[in-house]
């Protein structure tokens, strides 16, 4: 079974082949933790979750990394305004992010490196030193270090732009005049007063890393020099991912990424949902209006990732309705299934679902699912679906649900237990097993037992 995906680099649909057969190394750009992530961000994360789950459905082992940007202009500004150390400022946003992932059923059996971890800062410094040594970077008069885009002829290839067309971008130091060429971007930003207590020592003096080198260092540090997939929202293409390619390839000498994937934006009234536009909703905003994580997940999934998703509140009742049809059908299957599994009637074609997703994650897979629900309901009504066939359908539902994650919420989990579960999710993501065990015991003391599956924890009342 081949999976075909659109590669932003070649602008073509390609058959996906990881470098090492069966094993996928996947890197996705994560949140900047100065605020709660909005549902535009979650569109990107839900798309990446769909991709990971579908690859696993097709038998690949996926090794996934999503970074947390916990040092940049905005986090520094935030901590200074709040008058607290950087780590204290970002901590609640990190925790909220993991809680939201949990609510939206986004897989968390990935690694979530944080840019400020010593091991990553060390790698950033090491990479920058190599780039300077090889003539790809230089120290400017302001003490900052810049990447010399003129030294990398492929620069612009991902975004399909020419070097002459480059305009200054938002996320570089504002001191443009220091640079040799307008598109040169900061690898290391020299300390200024506005940075307060936030700095690291480096061979170029006190300072902090630029955003782009953070991702190159964490991606190559954790996944090796060559990745199979690298994803993000379309705004990441330039300059961020273009810069990641330049930095990584000039250090490793190897092609960085085999296939680049980007989702189109989530829009509000035709405009990108963005914190800077003030036109955003967080998952928490929607949850406060009564929409659940699975409903929001469905609404975000239901539009193909390569089409813009114009968010309206009407999409949520539609999601609720679709989910209740799925629930009713599931219940019917559960009540009827019995005996040995039997071949499905010819009128039902369960293969269409996966085949649609194989075709560049075509979410018309949901259409195939609801056609099958309609047709099997008709057979039920006519008494033409046997308990053995219902059993086969139930097994199929379980299989596709490893991708969709549409199972009903477990009702009645108290908030304090949910909080502990979210903390445990972070501990597990960080492989802090001692903390994870302690949290499990705390939940048990409150009457809730945790069952760990490969990718998530399920809570059940202590029997
Ligand atoms: P940021 O926190 O701005 O670095 O964004 C984190 C991720 O969310 C990146 O992959 C962005 O491309 C993505 N993203 C941001 N805004 C949107 C949006 N309105 N629609 C889809 N993806 C977005
Ligand atoms: Zn990134």
Provide an overview of this structure.
This protein is an alpha/beta fold and 463 residues long. The protein is built from 14 helices and 15 strands. The chain has helices at 39-57, 73-82, 86-103, 118-133, 211-223, 237-252, 283-288, 293-301, 315-336, 351-358, 365-381, 387-404, 415-429, 433-445; strands at 4-7, 12-15, 23-28, 61-66, 137-139, 145-147, 186-190, 207-209, 227-233, 257-263, 266-268, 271-272, 309-310, 448-452, 457-461. The strands form five sheets. Strands 4-3-9-10 form a four-stranded parallel β-sheet, with helices on both faces. Strands 5-6-7-8 form a four-stranded antiparallel β-sheet. Strand 9, helix 6 and strand 10 form a beta-alpha-beta unit. Helix 4 packs across helix 5 (211-223), helix 4 crosses helix 6 (237-252) and helix 5 (211-223) crosses helix 6 (237-252). It is globular and about 80 Å long. The two termini are 43 Å apart. Mean pLDDT is 93; it is low at 172-177. Residues 29, 215, 240 line the site of zinc ion.
């Amino acid at each position: 079974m081949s999976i075909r995906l659109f590669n932003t680099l070649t602008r073509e649909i390609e058959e996906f082949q990881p470098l090492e057969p069966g094993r996928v190394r996947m890197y996705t750009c994560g949140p900047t933790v100065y605020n709660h992530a909005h549902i535009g961000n979650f569109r990107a994360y839900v798309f990446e979750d769909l991709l990971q789950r579908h690859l696993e459905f097709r038998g690949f082992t996926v090794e996934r990394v999503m970074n947390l940007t916990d040092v940049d202009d905005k986090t520094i500004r935030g901590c200074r305004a709040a008058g607290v150390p950087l780590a204290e400022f970002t901590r609640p946003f990190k925790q909220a992010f993991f809680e939201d992932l949990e609510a939206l059923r986004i897989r968390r059996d990935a690694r979530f490196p944080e840019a400020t971890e010593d091991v990553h800062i060390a790698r950033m410094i090491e990479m920058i030193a190599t780039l300077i040594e090889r003539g790809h970077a230089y120290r400017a008069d302001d003490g900052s270090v810049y990447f010399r885009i003129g030294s990398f002829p492929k620069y612009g290839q991902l975004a399909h732009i020419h070097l002459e067309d480059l305009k200054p971008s938002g996320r570089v130091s504002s001191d443009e005049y220091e640079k040799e060429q307008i598109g040169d971007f900061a690898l290391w930003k020299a300390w200024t007063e506005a940075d307060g207590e936030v700095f690291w020592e480096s061979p170029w003096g006190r300072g902090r890393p630029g955003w782009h080198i953070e991702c190159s260092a964490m991606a190559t540090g954790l996944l090796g020099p060559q990745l199979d997939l690298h994803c993000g929202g379309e705004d990441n293409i330039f300059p961020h991912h273009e810069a990641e390619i330049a930095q990584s390839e000039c250090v490793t000498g190897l092609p960085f990424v085999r296939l680049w994937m980007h989702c189109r934006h989530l829009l509000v009234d035709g405009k990108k949902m963005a914190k800077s536009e003030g036109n955003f909703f967080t998952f928490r905003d929607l949850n406060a209006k009564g929409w659940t994580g699975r409903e929001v997940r469905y609404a975000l999934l239901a539009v193909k990732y390569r089409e813009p998703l114009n968010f309206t509140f009407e999409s949520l009742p539609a999601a609720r309705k679709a989910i209740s049809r799925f629930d009713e059908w599931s219940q019917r299957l559960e009540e009827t299934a019995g005996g040995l599994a039997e071949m499905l009637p010819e009128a039902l074609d369960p293969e269409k679902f996966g085949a649609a997703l194989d075709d560049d994650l075509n979410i018309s897979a949901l259409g195939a699912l609801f056609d099958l629900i309609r047709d099997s309901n008709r057979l039920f009504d006519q008494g033409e679906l046997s308990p053995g066939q219902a059993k086969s359908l139930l097994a199929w539902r379980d299989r596709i649900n490893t991708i969709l994650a549409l199972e009903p919420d477990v009702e009645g989990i108290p908030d304090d237990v949910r909080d502990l579960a979210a903390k445990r999710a972070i501990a597990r993501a960080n492989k802090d097993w001692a903390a994870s065990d302690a949290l499990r015991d705390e939940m048990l003391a409150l009457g809730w037992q945790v069952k760990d599956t490969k990718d998530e924890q399920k809570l059940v009342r202590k029997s």
